[in-house]
Amino acid sequence: MKSSQVRWTRFRIVVVFCVFLLAWGGLIWRAASLQIHNRDQLVKVAEQEYLRNIKLIPVRGDIFDRNGEKLAVSLSVDSIYAEPIRIKDPAAMTNQLVRILDLDRGRILKKLSSKSYFVWVKRQVDPDESAAVRALNAKGLGFIKESKRFYPNFSLASHLLGFVGVDAQGLEGIEVAYDDYFRGEVAYMPVMRDALGRTFQDRLSKSRPSMKGDNLTLTIDRRIQFVVEKALNRAVREYNARSGICIVLRPRTGEVLAMAVAPGFNPNVYGQYPPKRWRNIALTDSFDPGSTLKIFLVAAALEEGVVKPFDRLDCGNGFMSIGSRVVHDSRGYGRLTVSNIVKYSSNIGAVKIGRRLGSDHFYTYLANFGFGSKTGIDLPGESFGLVRPCDKWTEVDAANIAFGQGISVTAIQMVAAMSALANDGLLMRPFVVSKITDPSGKIIKKFRPQVVRRVVSERTAREARRMLRMVVEEGGTGMLAEPEGYPAAGKTGTAQKLDKNTRSYSKTKFVSSFVGFMPYDDPELAVLVILDEPWPKFFGGVVAAPTFKEIGEKVLPLLNLAPRSRPSVMTSTLEKKRNSELERHFGLVGQVKAGFKPYQLNRKMAGQNS
Question: Which of 126, 134, 322, 610 is paired with 554 by a 20 to 30 Å CA distance?
């Protein structure tokens, strides 16, 4: 009996042991399975419950001018977030935040009234706003350091630089063109959440650091850009112009030293301006060039040998009929040499040179000078302009185009084409970025001058330059363009604007321009000045040429170029004499005071000397 009880007891012990062994074995196997085989998957599930990564704005690289001056930098600023679940009175909190941060009340109240664990209140706030919110010492509000783009020179070169959005993505200008280089590696801030859903930062967990983006060094000279913008803004105000454009280019290299559009805007607060104000019209908009196109016609005719500089053409005493159309000159010229046709900007002379050259040859040279195609400048938004195929030109069209009407060009095309004449016939690709460096200063990419093509021979280019020199000498249409102590050369332009309502050229709206280079015998700078709709004075030689002069006198010394002779101080009497002589030449005073129509419109085949 005893032996049977002992056996039964042992049997039960063995059974219990086996049960426990199986149970523990199962638990150990399950634990091993969860902790080893399924670890990564379970960690992700757990992290989703208590851990969240907040994406922070990457630190963009800086922008420097050619001399190392900063044009755009990234600063560390506060961004404000809220934990709505911890806010007891969303309405009261909303009122305080709206008062300090100038936010939309309805939108913020909706955010703070939600059951979310994390919402942005306002990102990239200024120091005063941050200090005021911190002073509230309110539960449920927090601060995160983020990167904000800042332009220390405010509106300087704003159209060229562009700006970035709140997420640090480039939206305009250089910022968008080189966005892939600028954008650094994205940073993340880990945020933890407890069992009650309350969000907090774990002091032991570190934010993933961001890698700063690459830096850009531009061809732009901040000093020259400042001079150009000041002169252009003055001209726009003085002549009541709608807008203005000025580009300064190095003819031998294609480097853009300045590119200005007036009126400008402050990219630090770009949202305060209408979107049309952001547009870089030096690249995006095209215009009828007017008489500035005549020098390219003459250069083509010289290259083809159909005219010589001292050939004389009959300019019809100021009138020329083409069928039922009439072309006018501002003065009744008789026989003029080709050089004087450029100097006095005779429309009739240009038409006759165009006839000798032929439409097909002229069209070819316009294309070779870069009109009708993009220059390839490393900025976004460049347009082609408009040059219709020559097989679609009528006799009237060919005459119009000869003196710069019926063709549309961009500002960058015009200054690049003039640079080709200044550069002995070689057309260069304009560019604004000289090099890209990483955060340590190592050069990643360097940009060098690039020849696009030879447009005309060196001999033709120099002959064209000699004619352009005559334009700014006494009696020429651009004699107000000569900087004191620096011989210059260039061409004036005054083009009628197309009236969209009447579908004909306007009697009162003009695009006035001057494009040239200096010094004349050894060109260092090519400069284009354009004023859109100046009034009551509107001739390029009167409103744009003086701005060219002002820029030359202030910029050339910055390049360590001394005046050829000591600048003379021009008395106010002599200045008035030169202005009155130019106005008499154009008939400007009588036109403005008596309401005289400056010339018949395009449909009657009229032009206007510049």
Answer: 610
Identify whether residues 242 and 182 lie together within a single domain: no
Query: Which region, left, alpha or beta, applies to residue 569 given φ > 0 means left and ψ of -120 to 50 means alpha?
Result: beta
Range of the domain at 133: 53-101+112-218
CA neighbours closer than 13 Å in the CB half-sphere of residue 94: 15
462 is a domain residue: yes
Do 240 and 206 share a domain, yes or no? no
pLDDT (tens digit per residue) in 497-546: 887 777 778 888 999 999 999 999 999 999 999 999 999 999 999 999 99
Do strands 286-287 and 256-262 pair parallel, antiparallel, or not at all (unpaired)? unpaired
What is the model's pTM? 0.82
Q: Examine the domain organization and report whether 389 and 288 are in the same domain.
A: yes
Give the full edge-to-edge strand order of the sheet including 187-193. 51-56, 187-193, 199-200
Check if 243 is active-site.
no
CB atoms within 10 A of CB 549: 25
427 and 559 belong to one structural domain: yes
Q: Which residues pair with 80 in a beta bridge?
A: 122, 143
Annotated catalytic residue: which of 74, 79, 286, 291? 291
Do 268 and 73 contact (CB within 8 A), yes or no? no
Q: Is there a single domain that holds both residue 305 and residue 207?
A: no
Within a domain: residue 204?
Answer: yes
Neighbours of 319 (CB within 10 A): 13
Say if residue 221's pLDDT is above 70: yes
* 263-307 pLDDT tens trace: 999 999 999 999 999 999 999 999 999 999 999 999 999 999 999
In a domain, 25, yes or no: no
